[in-house]
Write the structure tokens for this entry.
Amino acid sequence: MHLRGDLTQGPLMRSLIIFALPQLLGNLLQSLNGSINAVWVGQLLGEQAVAATANANIVMFLLFGLTFGFGMAATVRIGQFFGARDLDAARRTYGSAIGLTLAIAVTVSLLGWIFAPRLLDALATPAASYEAALTYLRIILLGVPAMMLSLQLAMGLRGSGDARSPLNVMILSTLIDVILNPVLILGLGPAPRMGIAGSATAAVIASTVSLCAQVGQLYWKDLPLRLRGVELKYLRPRSEELSYLISKGLPMGAQMLVISGAGVVMIGLVNREGLTMTAAYGALLQVWNYIGMPAMAIGGAVSAMVAQHIGAMREDRVDAISGAGAMANIVMTGVLIALLLPFDRPVLELFLGGDTGAVPLALHIQDLAIWTYLPFGVTIVLFGTLRAYGVI
């Protein structure tokens, strides 16, 4: 029986690139969305607003670490069942992951709203941008359930070998967010002038529409993982599925929490150097999102491919999948770095403006750090292979 999304057939490098490209484009759109919004915030609201969003976004990245772990655990398990041609088991895992994510997302949204001031205090958020950061963060937290569920739905689909459907939704979400940002920041037309709150509100609206579109296409396209009739009971996680998702998802999430925790430590240290340094670092985070895209896309593709091969009892190809992923990542990341470096000053000026002391600081940091993305990418690919085996 041949299933849509079967990644166990055909030449490895070709299958890997074809599967990774939609996810890479999705990551590109997501980063482009963040960058365009950062440009709007920086140009329309100034350096303080850039610093505010940098602090709030680091907190959001930290909160999403745990959900990413459960999403990766579900992706691996779905991939293994998909490779073994056990579609009912794959749907059961998909439903359990969605139900678990919903419960976590509502809890995170509520607790995040309550403890947002303490989180920003822990980061030593500059006083000049504190109120803006708190406003931005609390509004973004309202959209956490929609954001987390959309992420979980997309990751599950990738486990079934479908990377195009999440890309379609990402295109829609990006267009809505990019269009609404200046409208709500400036109060264009009938919209109220909301300042930095408008940027956060645009993200929440885009995420909510994205979730509705994700669910809609799941049924409209009759994708293999859609749940109907008695299958809807899978949304209430069974003990077996819950045990797997928690036992594997927590350590996987812990890996992301270590990475995002390092980001929290960094932004805390940077904040102590003053507003100009925080703005410089915030702009660099936008640029580095692009450099890290191949690693995340190829790492996710490798994980899904290896999981399907394990389920299909074709583990003889796993080493070759990992090697192809590492090589593809080195080439793609290297090309991105080579394209960026000659134009890094004008790129940073897009976010910071031309007459600010933040630009020289950002250029110095970039010269020191950007090369680390080459070994980072290979590490992410190897992590993807290990995750497919449940090794954490």
The longest helix spans residues 47-83. The radius of gyration is 21 Å.
